[in-house]
């Protein structure tokens, strides 16, 4: 994206004109008060400070407290420990049988954050996976804002305007919701990087095409190993932007086509080299899930864009399902006004198109006003029928909308600060009125895990080195409150288990969580408050023992929960022996079902 098009003037570095000149280099632009490098470093420090201030109550307060809630992050915490463990033990990090034993799971079909886990290996080795997760939350949020600043700055004459745009992106309703538990989404550096590389490759073309293409390919591969959903969202939302730019700059396409093709070729080659094996594992490897992973879709209603949710400081009645799409009436009016007033600027037009497409697609396949969906079809019906895209949640596409808003707000502030005093005051007041409703409820919430000492004091070394450990709480709801995969992670991967809240293959395509065979159903019922059978029949006992043999169970650990006594009673009856109370759990160390 760039300013409004004009006749191209060849230069030593490539096609350029006044509007294509990088910020601060044109003769008609005011000199910044800070050198570009100093402004970049200062912005990074400010984004980091904001993230720390917003998350401080949940940071580094112990080995069991994390930023966000204590449910969804469990698999991310596990992955932070799994990657260094797998690499140090010469295991394939893309698949595992340490969860969902013995069949295992394909981690490329799960939110496995493999690349961040690799980067944070030193932190995990020194302080454990929970501290590493908190560090990831701080870095993910602050670096996302900083990358947005770098991208927006290409269309902004002043670093402070770009900084405001970066803050809008860093603390957008999307990011504030995702920071509560979705590491694969709150590490959202790729969308602004795609904008930055796209502007250089499509419009400015001042740096070597090979370099830009290679960097874009590396960034895409890193995003694939961080979260394939965000990669798919970024690519999908780039389509309307590319079409818009092609129309605006249609007179320049021929002269710039060669550079674009070279850069695209290097990007594809780099991505292919780095991502070929992970993609092979994902689509052709073992334990891959089939079909749509979610049997439902999170969609927005038209009012969702205008009414705040509980995540905003100015709280409203809007219900948030997975991701907030809130913009607010003042910011929406400002975006429309900027589009109309600055419609000759390509950056504004492309941003407006991106925002509009994100809002429409977030509504899902059929319009919902109140209650069930209407029969009014919407554009999301098209990508929802395509492989891979069928797994996207429509509301999450608004990440591109917030990046577009960041560009529009920065461009608006650039115009405001050079306006006459009366208009300057009015413009700054309008920006404040538009942005204040997006201020999130702070501090960001924190969650606490119940981690028995058994898993942290080395006692897990007494478990059998082969087979697996059957743990409770078992199932879905209680499993989220006290996730056994976190217990496994903090133990240093000392054992395997049939547990794990992750996607794994089954006859119907996929399952989520541990198997619900007869034993699994019994344990789930116990976890939900059912009364344990006083005396098991011979047939019941044989079925349950057969299920244990199928999962290679050599040990049982009953963790602390509201139904712990019922579970202990059940396993005592099933195994014919009493467990040993140690480290806050009850353990059957040597089970031969």
What does this structure look like?
The protein is mostly helical and 593 residues long. The protein has 2 domains: 36-438, no CATH class; 453-588. Helix content is 49%, strand content 5%. The protein contains 21 helices and 10 strands. The protein has helices at residues 36-55, 73-88, 114-119, 121-127, 129-152, 159-170, 173-178, 183-186, 190-204, 209-224, 228-248, 253-284, 329-341, 346-362, 398-417, 421-435, 477-481, 484-490, 518-527, 538-550, 564-575, and strands spanning 65-67, 95-96, 105-106, 446-448, 468-472, 503-504, 511-512, 553-558, 580-582, 585-588. The strands form 4 sheets. The protein has a 4-stranded mixed sheet. The chain has a two-stranded antiparallel sheet with strand order 1-4. A hairpin with an 8-residue loop joins strand 2 and strand 3. The chain is elongated, with a radius of gyration of 26 Å. The relative contact order is 0.12. Mean pLDDT is 88; it is low at 1-32.
